[in-house]
Design goal:
The structure is a single chain. By secondary structure, the chain is an all-alpha fold. The protein contains one helix and no strands.
């Protein structure tokens, strides 16, 4: 039994494998993990910056939209005011034109009435003359018969 030793002798291959693993992990860390982690950190930092910029842009957009809404409200109010003013002016113009037309119509009616009255007077005078002539003729026709009788 001399050929078999039963004792606690550590196997050196375990230490060699451990050393190779540690060297492998060190090399992998330097070559692969560190650049990968650095790229992930940079990417995360970039995403944070972009999110911050997006949030700022969103706030600016909301402010701009609020200003645009205010401008639109002012414009609508001014437009409404102008429309009311023009509506009022238009009503005044229409009223003025209607009054003028009514006055002209009344003048025309008065002129027509005067013309009709003048024509009636002329016709009355003409009729009076005609009636006077007819009366004279009737009298002349009747009187000579009475004189003869």
């Amino acid at each position: 039994m001399e050929g078999i030793h039963v004792g606690v002798i550590p196997d050196i291959t375990l230490f060699i494998q451990l050393a190779i693993f540690l060297v492998f992990m060190f090399i992998m860390k330097k070559i692969y993990f560190d650049p990968y982690l650095q790229a992930m950190d940079e990417r995360e930092e970039t995403v944070k910056k972009l999110l911050k910029e997006a949030e700022e842009n969103h706030k600016k957009t909301e402010e701009i939209l609020k200003k645009v809404d205010e401008i639109i409200a002012k414009t609508r109010a001014e437009t409404q005011k102008i429309m009311e003013q023009y509506h009022h002016e238009t009503n005044e113009m229409v009223s003025s034109i209607l009054k003028k037309a009514q006055n002209e119509a009344e003048e025309m009616i008065e002129d027509a009435k005067k013309e009709v009255e003048r024509v009636v007077e002329i016709e009355k005078k003409t009729m009076d003359k005609i009636i006077e002539k007819l009366a004279l003729e009737i009298v002349n026709k009747i009187l000579p018969k009475e004189k003869a009788a």
